[in-house]
Amino acid sequence: MKNLIRTLCTSLALFIILLPALGQGVKFGNNKATVNAGSLLELESTNKGFLQTRINLISTTSWTPLLGTGVTGMQVFNTNTNITSSNTSYPILTGGAGIYYWDGSGWVGVTPVSAITDKFWSLSGNSSTNPGSNALGAATDGNYLGTKDAQNLVIGTAGVKRVLIDQKGNAFGGGSTSAAGVNNFSWGYNNTFGATNPRFSLAFGNGNTINNSTSVGVFAIGTNHQVEGLSSGSGAAGFGAKIYNSTYSYSFGNPATFTSGTPNGYSIYNSAGSVILGTNNKVYGNATGNNLIFGTGNTINGYDGCVLLGGTNVTAASGGNMVLYTGGSSNSVSGSAFGNDLTGVFTGGYRFFTGIGSTAVNTTSNTAGQVLIYNPSRTSSTAAASSTLMGVGVDTSLSSGTAGYTGDMHSTLQVGGSFALPIRSVSTNTTVTGNDFTIICTAAVTITLPSVTQCAGRIYQIAAENSSGTVTVNNAGGGTVMKNGSSSATATVGLSSNQCYQFQSDGTLWHVLLR
Coil, strand or helix: which one is 291? Predict the structure, then answer.
């Protein structure tokens, strides 16, 4: 019987050995007669598993304790939870134990899918993320999307680089083409780059629209802006602003929009190089350009180079205007105007007018170059004698039957009222400055005037109100430059008590004019 069993075992062993040579695999378990043609060894069971070889590995880079030399493809189940690693290319599985295979140089752990899902960004989003608490620029202390080495982070679409954040924190976006509809940026809500596709443009805020295929380098910031029709260049919109065909124009604040007809609801229309700041301002009309408005309800229509500052409801009526108001309404001006409540149409030049009341000043016949400053009670004014006149205040004695200047001014500066000059008292030696005019001396002191060569034409008054002694007046830096009604100059001039002298410099000498 023993011989029979020995014979059967030997025959089975030979069968198993010779079976591969016959092109058939070996199968253990159920359905032994059915073997997968592609398998060398097949296991089949409904209630038994495959028990992996269990080895107590020492290190992920050591073949020991397996016999022989390492062979690629060897697979074991490591039972040593204290396995070590000396190479970051062969890390240890979480907990140490698990399935490892030899890749020719070390043991590679087979990581479970459940351990991988929280290590990578999912196409459907990740949960339980931790952004960390470190500030921007500090080391990452939580989850992040990016690089650990000193390399740039690249984001692309259609196989093309679109966004690059370099290792220094600089961000770059766009592409290499300048075709319409590319390299635009929007941040906010409900912003639109129109159907005709602008380029290199920015919309920041809510409900902004940038349109026209030739709009290059345009940006809209704020709420409900519209910038379109630009041939090229830049346009910036403020709150509720609309800009059309106006390169290098900017609108900030709450500009007005036209409700019908040309310019079809735009705050800046066909007006290159224009800037609006404020509320309900408008710049429009062909040939309009290089204008500036700051204020409320102001309009520039069809003119170049106008400046309206601080005005209320001011309309430019010709080119080259400069208007500075502090109030007023329904004004129409050209030329240059500074002040309040001015009316009339000026016909050119660089004149300056001002007033501080509510009564309008009629300046229709003033000559270019004049500077007129009027009392608020005046209602009319004319001046035509010179192109460099300045009228200050009003005096009814200068008028001819009307309240205000009605005739010509006859001086470069004509003052129709009182004026004030600085005065101070001193009781110690004093050096006069450019802020002085009258010096009252209450003691016998020395008064030093500024250097005569540096203030030609300047006038000072020195009054001696001391009870005794002499007030001495000299020139800064010394010198025999004081002349007091004689043919020769002296180094000083003395004032006795209750005397008042007026000194004027001609650039060489201080002359005593009044004694």
Answer: coil
Range of the domain at 494: 423-514
Q: How far apart are CA 99 and CA 96, in angstroms?
A: 10
Tokens 């080895």 label which residue? Answer: 55
Angle, CA 203 vertex, CA 198 and CA 204 arms, to 5°? 175
The DSSP element (H or E) to which 342 belongs, if any, is strand 342-343
Report d(CA 234, CA 378) in Å as an integer: 46
**Burial category of 396 from C-beta neighbours within 10 Å (exposed 0-12, middle 13-18, buried 19 and up):** middle
206, part of any domain: no
What's the Cα-to-Cα distance from 478 to each of 14, 304, 451, rounded to whole Å?
A: 134, 56, 8
| Phi, psi of 119, deg, nearest 5 | -105, -10
**What dihedral do alpha carbons 350, 355, 356, 361 form, nearest 10°?**
-130
Confidence of residue 68 (pLDDT cuts 50, 70, 90): very high
Bridge-partner residues for 284, per DSSP?
Answer: 301
Q: Which amino acid is at 508?
A: T
Buried b (16+ CB within 10 A) or exposed e, 47-58: eeeeeeeebebb
As a whole number of angstroms, the distance between CA 407 and CA 394 comes to 12
For residue 441, the domain's CATH number is: 2.60.120
Q: Is 350 a domain residue?
A: no
What is d(CA 365, CA 384) in angstroms, rounded to the nearest whole number? Answer: 7
Based on the structure, what is the number of domains in the chain?
A: 1
**Given the structure tokens 């159907």, which residue do they identify?**
195
User: If you write DSSP's letter for every residue of 170-227 in order, what string do you get?
Assistant: -EEE--S---TT-S-EEEEES-EE-TT--BS-EEEEES-EE--TT-BS-EEEEES-EE
Distance CA 337, CA 179 (A): 47
pLDDT (mean) for 489-512: 94
What is the Cα–Cα distance from 365 to 348, expressed in whole angstroms? 11
HSE-CB of 188 using CA atoms within 13 angstroms? 20
pLDDT tens digits, 294-316: 777 777 777 777 777 766 666 66
**498: its two tokens:** 């209750």
In this structure, which long-range contacts are made by residues 263-270, counting pairs with CB atoms below 8 Å and at least 24 apart in sequence? Answer: 266/226, 266/242, 267/241, 267/242, 267/243, 268/235, 268/241, 268/242, 268/243, 268/244, 269/243, 269/244, 269/245, 270/244, 270/245, 270/246
Query: Are the CB atoms for 381 and 362 separated by under 8 Å?
Result: yes
Q: Is residue 311 part of a domain?
A: no
Query: Considering the domain boundaries, does residue 298 fall inside one?
Result: no
The rounded distance, in Å, linking the Cα atoms of 375 and 420 is 16
Query: ∠ CA(124), CA(130), CA(135), 5° rounding?
Result: 125
State the pTM of this model: 0.46
Whether the predicted pLDDT of 336 surpasses 50: no
| CA-closest candidate to residue 446, choices 419, 489, 475, 418 | 475
Q: What does the alpha-carbon distance between residue 414 and residue 373 come to, in Å, rounded to a whole number? A: 10
C-alpha torsion angle, residues 168, 174, 176, 179 (rounded to 10): -160
Distance, in Å, from the CA atom of 325 to the CA atom of 310, rounded to the nearest integer, reads: 5
